[in-house]
Amino acid sequence: MAKALDTIPVWDWGFFTEPKPCVIAGPCSAETEEQLLASAKGCAEQGIHMFRAGIWKPRTHPGCFEGIGTPGLKWMQKAKQEYGVKICTEVASEKHVYECLKYGIDLVWIGARTTANPFLVQEIAEALRDTDIPVLVKNPMNPDLDLWIGALERLNAVGIKKLGAIQRGFTSYEKIRYRNNPEWQVAVELRSRYPELSIFTDPSHMGGKREYLQELSQKSLDLGFEGLMIESHCNPACALSDAAQQLTAEDLGKLLASLVVRTPDISGAGREQIAQLRAQIDLIDESILYTLGSRMKISRKIGECKKANNIAIVQANRWDSLLAAVVEKGKAYNLPEEFVKAVFNAIHEASVQTQNDILEGASSEQK
Ligand code: PEP
Ligand code: MN
């Protein structure tokens, strides 16, 4: 049983204001003082709530730009003074935390590569003990919800209540549309386990390319998440890291203006129509259940027959050809292959389980 998290909603941290989304924006990395200040000015003009920049950069290959280090914190401080923005950065060790505290960083986040390392998360948590600094925890690189929750628990256990999560997608070996696979269901599950925990989406690292940021940001809002962390650079083409996914301040403004915030409660226009459509869905669900029940009855009869004739429960060939046939038929109903496979595999599993129970019932009767 997971422990409850004792957290303060993001609206009470003093940085973010309604309506949604809470917006954190800024360059992937602090590179030079000029670049950082120009990027901060651009973001501030777009009305963002908080300015980000990476000071220490975890890079896949050695020899790439690994961040400017502590001098960048001084530039961040300057950006705060000159443009009135709150400032945040990524920490990956206790040393980073101490440096951030020294330079008045308003919020820190733990990066995806660090979340997966409980030793480092614990070290960071200890360094943050007795501070009031909010912390956002990115999802680990792999879709391991417990690892993500474990990191949140470690921070909560040292008294950090201004705690939130950032989803930035998950590594995929297969080539996919995005740089990282959103796997939205992982954050949706996090939301259902901890409804009070505020969740941000980082469409920049999820998408990997400028052109995907709008659709991912809108999707995040549609799923009801609170915030966005978006990379924005004064000259994206020349960025020393993540050049393909950063937006100019102007494009950031356009993206934010394009977002539609839909209300979670159904009222006003559309309410009638949604109610009618939902009623139709309820009826269809009812008939799906009836059909599944009828199928299961037959499956039980087959189970009895297999028991009586000493036939193994699973005949792999039979299942492969059934699956191929339903996938093919599903196309006529506009049903995606993966969906049809998932549904029928679940049906098959339940069917096998039922037949197994029939068989085991027989052997225990014989004992
Ligand atoms: C970042 O936000 O700059 C970053 C490195 O992100 P992630 O940890 O999601 O890769
Ligand atoms: Mn980046």
Termini separation comes to 37 Å
Number of helices: 13
Bound molecules: phosphoenolpyruvate, manganese (II) ion
Question: Which regions have little confidence, pLDDT < 50, spanning 5+ residues?
Answer: none
The average pLDDT is 93
Going by CATH, the homologous superfamily of the largest domain would be Aldolase class I
Q: What is the level 1 CATH name of the largest domain?
A: Alpha Beta
Instruction: Assign the structural class, choosing from mainly alpha, mainly beta, alpha/beta, alpha+beta, or little secondary structure.
Output: alpha/beta
Strand content: 5-15%
**Series of secondary-structure elements, N-terminal to C-terminal:** EHEHEHEHHEHEHEHHEHHHH
For the biggest sheet, the summary is:
8 strands, parallel, barrel
Total strand segments: 8
Please state the second-level CATH architecture of the largest domain: Alpha-Beta Barrel
Please state the CA-atom Rg, rounded to the nearest Å. 26 Å
**Tally of individual domains:** 2
Task: Describe this protein's structure.
The chain is α/β, with parallel strands linked by helices and 367 residues long. 50% of the residues lie in helices and 10% in strands. Strands 1-2-3-4-5-6-7-8 form an eight-stranded parallel β-barrel, surrounded by six helices. Bound molecules: phosphoenolpyruvate and manganese (II) ion. Manganese (II) ion is lined by residues 28, 205, 231, 241-242.
Give short descriptive properties of this protein.
367 residues; TIM Barrel; Chorismate Mutase Domain, subunit A; 2 domains; 8 strands; 50% helix; binds phosphoenolpyruvate; binds manganese (II) ion
